[in-house]
């Protein structure tokens, strides 16, 4: 039984927004399916760090979630900036139950215990030099991360954090998010969102006592990354 993570599946099986038009994403659906099922066993768990589906509503998600459900293992999904189908956790969980997608759970203001660890996370928010920062959204995401880590604290196991947006990118730091990670003693943080040439500024390694790893689909050869 192992734990894996990957981000940014960007599925569009029920909508017309394929990623194949971008360099490096050719035939990505088959690449994901093959690499996932060769790497992940039925008893394993995979945390998907946001940007899961291009669907605009849950009604458009059927094909994408059916694809995810049929992949090996249990899946824990969290929201990314392009997951417009995500309305509320309750509605998404009701949808999953109605459709019989019982291999899928949602990480949102909560935490899950896994093999001596608590799995925590939130979407996060961007904080780039020269860009206007939406403080309201940023503070809300920091609050959601705190709620998740508090839930992990109640589990009583060391936390592993998953974010969609990177809390550090190049020389830019999203201190509102970093402050929460440091407060709760997070030592491992996995994130997505970054693609293509932008990955040259991504942090893969230790900063401020936390090991950060980029796990966007195209940056990990469309293969889930083993954590435990």
UniProtKB/TrEMBL annotation:
Residue span, Calcineurin-like phosphoesterase domain: 5-196
Pfam annotation, one family: Metallophos
InterPro entries: Calcineurin-like_PHP, Metallo-depent_PP-like, Metallophosphoesterase_sf, Pesterase_CT488
A GO term for molecular function: hydrolase activity
Protein name, per record: Metallophosphoesterase
Lineage of the species this protein comes from: Bacteria, Bacillati, Bacillota, Clostridia, Eubacteriales
């Amino acid at each position: 039984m192992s734990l894996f993570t990957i981000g940014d599946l960007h599925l569009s099986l029920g909508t017309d927004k394929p990623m194949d038009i971008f360099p490096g994403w050719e035939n990505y659906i088959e690449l994901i399916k093959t690499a996932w099922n060769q790497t992940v066993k039925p008893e394993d768990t995979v945390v998907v760090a946001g940007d899961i589906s291009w669907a605009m509503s849950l009604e458009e998600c059927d094909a994408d979630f059916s694809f995810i459900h049929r992949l090996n293992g249990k899946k824990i999904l969290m929201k990314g900036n392009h997951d417009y189908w995500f309305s509320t956790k309750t509605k998404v969980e009701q949808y999953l139950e109605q459709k019989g997608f019982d291999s899928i759970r949602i990480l949102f203001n909560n935490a899950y215990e896994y093999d001596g660890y608590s799995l925590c996370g939130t979407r996060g928010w961007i904080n780039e030099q020269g860009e206007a920062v939406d403080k309201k959204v940023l503070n809300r995401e920091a609050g959601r991360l705190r709620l998740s880590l508090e839930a992990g604290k109640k589990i009583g196991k060391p936390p592993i954090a998953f974010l969609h947006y990177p809390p550090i990118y190049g020389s830019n730091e999203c201190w509102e998010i970093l402050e929460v990670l440091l407060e709760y003693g997070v030592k491992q943080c996995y994130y997505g969102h970054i693609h293509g040439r932008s990955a040259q500024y991504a942090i893969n390694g230790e900063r401020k006592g936390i090991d950060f790893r980029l796990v966007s689909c195209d940056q990990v050869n469309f293969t889930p990354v083993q954590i435990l």
